Amino acid sequence: MNKEEKYNLIARDIEEIMTGDDLKWIIENDIPLKHYIGFEISGKVHLGTGLVCMRKVKDLMDAGAECVIYLADWHTWINEKLDGTIETAGKIAQGYFKNALMKSLECLGGDSSKLKFILGTDLYHNNDKFWETVIDVSKHTTLARMKRSITILGKEEGEGVDFAKLVYPAMQVADIFTIGANIVHAGMDQRKAHVIARDVALQIKNSPFQYGKKTYKPIAIHGPLLMGLGKPSKWPIDESERDELISALKMSKSQPDSAVFIHDSEEEITRKVKKAFCSEGEIGYNPVLNWAKLLIFTKEESITIHRQNKHGGDLTFNSYDELEKVFEKKELHPADLKNFVAEYLIKILKPARDFFNNGNGRKMLDQLNAV
Fold first, then answer.
1. What is this structure's pTM?
2. Cα separation values, 68 from 175, 185, 276, 281, Å
3. 297: helix, coil or strand?
4. d(CA 221, CA 6)
């Protein structure tokens, strides 16, 4: 793989790179690529985490990056997820959550043995460097900015929170520097933390991002949000509200019917997709088309949707744009699109479904369900 191909692989199918020029620079200078993505341990792994995030992890692995999955048990504790204890967060992280991400990568054809997992508790234990970096980041960030950054916890800007939540962004940024990840990866909802990391990179002491005498900024890549399957409360929508609506109605584990989880049964996948909002001819806000784009065409070069002859026979698409145009012209019925998407997901998720339906996988899932 040449340098241009490496860049294109890392940059494809994402919402934003901060910045493309920075990424090209580290590739051109043959600086080893070290990637990081962190997760709160907040429940079952759905397709946004399992397939969208891990698809980009696979791209980075294929581009030669060392890929680190950070299991954020302390951040889970701060954000009061699961039962609110750090002990449960750590137990679920090292059991269910770690294996769910490994199986997700395997569903995409990746080699899960190459993933490196770091638990927050292990990173922080007897680690003066980490705690020094937390303070150093905080010294170069205002309180007002920390308050604005609580949206990375899923909180509203200006919402009253306990003080620990204001420490959360500085800890997240310190994770990046302590791990030494020069490519940080998340959804757009984590953007504010990554901007802080880039802003303080040239100011903090002992930065790991050195090339000769030059200190450089870590690159941030932000993936798209996978839509939830539900119908908007307001329909039709104003186009000016579309992005805000997608963010508000993103796939959520707190609304199980808005999401497919990586270990859902075949029947559950079929049921959820069949009841999904998918208005005929609608391409502006359509969760099923969104899933086809982000879950299928990121992996497949072409697809064939099988239909009865009386309904027009099979349709083959060589790009997502072709699919969207045909759907907009109402030449593909929502029911046929839903059937295809459900069947595709059932097939691709088989490794995860098989693992969590049996043996240790079943025990891990049961342990999570009991929390």
1. 0.92
2. 11, 10, 34, 41
3. coil
4. 14
What are 99's two structure tokens?
Answer: 């294996």
φ, ψ (nearest 5 deg) of residue 74: -65, -40
Angle between helices 54-62 and 3-11 (to 10 degrees): 180
Residue that wins the pLDDT comparison between 212 and 155: 212
How far apart, in whole angstroms, are the C-alpha atoms of residue 262 and residue 203? 41
pLDDT in tens, 119-165: 999 999 999 999 999 999 999 999 999 999 998 888 877 778 899 99
Interaxial angle between packed helices 128-139 and 164-179, expressed in degrees from 0 to 180 and rounded to the nearest 10:
120
Asked whether 152 and 189 are in contact (CB, 8 A), the reply is: yes
Q: What domains appear along the chain, each with residue ranges and CATH number?
A: 3-223 (3.40.50.620), 265-348 (1.10.240.10)
- 289-332 pLDDT tens trace: 999 999 999 999 999 999 988 888 999 999 999 999 999 999 99
Structure tokens at 38: 């962190």
